[in-house]
Q: What sequence folds into this?
DNA sequence: CTACATCCTCTAGCGACTAGAGGATCAAGA
DNA sequence: TCTTGATCCTCTAGTCGCTAGAGGATGTAG
């Protein structure tokens, strides 16, 4: 299945067309050969690489980490200690995030359970947000950062 | 404690100075009065509002949602159904994120456990990322988006 | 009087895309 | 052959929620 158009590569890999071009622009994906009419052509290897990137992104790996992983992949005689370290870092962060989110969920549940659908004056949601002292746990110094950026 | 400088308001509310100015620029916080030498002066009400915003942001509320909540807060005779709905949305999203992150954690644990510190050729980390088929669960269509934005 | 902290405005940058303009090319049907 | 519409190209600018830095004015402590 060689010589795929960018659209076909997008379909096969699950990475959107503009995102593929973006990955090329940041040199995460090599510039593919072009047809006579200047269109990009991809092969199965590119699709695999794109799927790899997509999967890693879904797992929350940052582009820089993916870049490192791809370099490791390109030189398979290297030690996998570096790849392992990246995954471990990721795991630690994911566990931190889960802990934050669970504290957060507890607080949100407290809010919506306390809401008696009366007036805002007695609304727990507003009240809890207004009174920081009611919040016993500590959500950590850094913001929780789950505002979903790239929604469909 | 009226007539605080922006730095004092920042300290009292836990919101950084440039962030306070940013909130003013997007009209989340009203423009405060200025001194003769053009410096912003805040009072206790502003500090409360800032603390409210900060707390809501820590809980993952988007600025637009906070804007709505603040409007509700300013008119306390309204029904709190809107505030409740916003909090419920937030809760649902948090629960989705937790589920994604737990699937993700399982996969990362599988990765680092499988890594025998040999060569990349046998490295589970690379292998699992490369082979999407090994991933049984589904992380959802949208990206997990936990790349920590504003790390201090 | 001298440091130095704090304040001001302004612009630009971050990450990881997404959206749209404005145009070229391709594939299929009438 | 013509036409329609999908796909492709490049480019710039926008998203979100800030953060960083330039370049200058003002305040405060010793």
A:
């Amino acid at each position: 299945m060689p010589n795929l158009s960018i659209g076909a590569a997008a379909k096969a890999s699950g990475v959107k067309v503009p995102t593929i071009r973006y990955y090329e622009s940041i040199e995460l994906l090599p510039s593919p050969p072009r047809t006579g009419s200047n269109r990009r052509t991809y092969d199965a290897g590119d699709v695999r690489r794109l799927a790899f990137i997509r999967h890693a992104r879904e797992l929350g790996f940052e582009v820089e980490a993916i870049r490192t992983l791809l370099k490791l992949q390109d030189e398979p005689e290297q030690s996998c200690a570096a790849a392992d370290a990246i995954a471990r870092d990721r795991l630690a962060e994911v566990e931190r995030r889960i802990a934050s989110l669970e504290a957060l969920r507890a607080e949100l549940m407290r809010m919506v359970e306390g809401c008696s659908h009366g007036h805002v004056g007695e609304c727990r949601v507003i009240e809890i947000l207004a009174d920081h002292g009611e919040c016993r746990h500590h959500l950590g110094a850094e913001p929780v950062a789950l505002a979903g950026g790239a929604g469909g």
